[in-house]
Design brief:
This protein is an alpha+beta fold and 117 residues long. 29% of the residues lie in helices and 43% in strands. Strands 3-4-5 form a three-stranded antiparallel beta sheet, with helices on one face. A two-stranded antiparallel ribbon has the order 1-2. A hairpin with a 2-residue loop joins strand 1 and strand 2. The radius of gyration is 15 Å and the shape is globular. The two termini are 13 Å apart.
């Protein structure tokens, strides 16, 4: 059984891979962060269960000229093969506007329930 430190590091790595996948618009990499039956909620909107719904929602990131998700303050609780994690992120989102770009800064909180696979 992995140690708490190994579990914590694996969860932090998962969160970073998710952020990197979003910023690279790499839906395959994002998909690797979820199980096929995953459930997600974004900005208070609960998506239908399933990875395909999550990826369809995140495909909207392609409308952005660029983005950068910075994740920090990761708190993890491990209970056997299950864990919960809360992390905070700042997302810098760049979108095209008439004659240029605008940058939107968003504060995010990720609450995750995870299972060892």
């Amino acid at each position: 059984m992995p140690s708490y430190a190994e579990d914590h590091a694996a969860i932090e790595d998962l969160l970073a891979r998710y952020a990197h996948g979003c910023d690279a618009r790499d839906l395959a990499a994002i998909g690797d962060c979820f199980t096929l039956d995953a459930q997600a909620e974004y900005s208070g909107v609960r998506l239908a269960r399933g990875l395909t719904h999550i990826l369809a929602h995140l495909a909207g990131l392609s409308a952005l000229a660029a983005s950068q998700h910075v994740i920090g303050s990761v708190s993890v609780t491990v209970d056997g093969d299950r864990a919960t994690a809360r992390s905070y992120a700042v997302a810098h989102l760049v979108r095209a506007v008439d004659g240029g770009h605008e940058v939107i800064h968003r504060g995010l909180r990720y609450d995750a329930r995870l299972g060892r696979t």
